[in-house]
Each structure stands twice: as C-alpha cells, then as structure tokens.
C-alpha cells in the first residue's frame, strides 16, 4: 500500500472519529448479548501501522515500530483471553491472501460503521442498529479453523517527535494550537456462520503506546472494552 493511501486512510478515519456525533463506543447487534458458552474465537492478523509526527505535522511510517506493535498487541490479545474467559486462538498461516483480503474488507466495513452507524451520516435503513456484515467470505475461516467467531482489530497510532513538541510549544506561545500524536482504531467480533458483525468497538484518544508490551496490554484492554464475554 502506498504511503499516501495509508496516511489518507488513517487521516480520514481520524476525522470521522473526531466528529462530535461519533460519541458511541461499543455496539451490539440486535439479538446478540454475549458469546455462547464454549464458543471459539479466532484472532485475525492485526491490521496495525505506526507513524511519527514530524515537525511539520507530516505522518511518517515507522516499520520497526509497526513490527514491534504487531508482536506486542498479538501477545496482549492472546494472553487477555484468560481474564475474559474467552477461547481465543491464533489463525494458522497468518498473512495469507485470504486473511489479507478479509482484513481489507474489515477495514472498509469498520469505517462505514463509524461513519454511518456512529457518525452524522447515519443510514435511515439501519434504524440505529448495528446491522453490518463481512459477507459469505468469512465461511473459509470457519472451515479452516473450526472457530465460531473471528476477532478483527484495526489500529493506527502516531507519536509526536521531539521536533513536533518544540513546534507545539512555539505554537502555544503564539496562540496557535498544533496537534500531536493519537491512537485510533476499532475491533469487531464477526459470526463466522453468517458473516454478521455482532460487536463493534471504536477507539480514539491522545494516549496509548503499542511499542512496549505493558502499554500494548492497556491498549488491548481499551479495544476490548465492553467485549461480550
């Protein structure tokens, strides 16, 4: 994915999440309240990218940080299962064409939920309900893993550089507000029988750090807030 496309996707999502009406965090699909007893949940490969914010406010991708974030957040999810009493399992053969395709689909559907479910552009046909699906494509996951549900997570995280901090201080002295880094993302629980998104939670904040395991655990907790265990 080209740099401009990555940053554009991240920035559009951030703008949607910052909209005053996007105040709802977690949502449940109609008729779904919690996971059935003994249900298995496959953890999809995490869709994560990390950036630094330059002095001029440009988002610069950081491959090393992103690699660490993948490892840290994945471990946080897989170890979080004991506290949630949820049977999380890792997806075999991570990063294949099928999982990559489903992650791209989830990224698009998640942004649609934020815009048309939780934002100012709500679709009248949805009647305020969480009524979204990834379609029949998810059936391959059920056949491959035997899981009942899949957990998807999308995160874009940025960190303010020292130069940007200096610019923010100067801006404050001049009465000009300059933004720093912040963490945006969302997580979805998808029924692998129907493809329906049964739980959705979005995250937007000016804190969080996926580069360290302990802090990644806290971000994991935030993404799984109100998880329907």
What are the salient characteristics of this protein?
globular, 229 residues, eight-stranded mixed sheet, Rossmann fold, 8 strands, alpha/beta, 22% strand
Question: Mind explaining what this structure looks like?
Answer:
The structure is a single chain. The chain is an alpha/beta fold and 229 residues long. The chain has a single domain, classed as Rossmann fold (3-Layer(aba) Sandwich). 38% of the residues lie in helices and 22% in strands. The chain contains 6 helices and 8 strands, in the order αββββαβααβαββα. Strands 1, 2, 3, 4, 5, 6, 7 and 8 form an 8-stranded mixed β-sheet that branches. A hairpin with a 5-residue loop joins strand 7 and strand 8 (197-205). The longest helix is centred in the N-terminal third of the chain and has 22 residues, at 63-84. The chain is globular. Mean pLDDT is 78; it is low at 19-24 and 161-180.
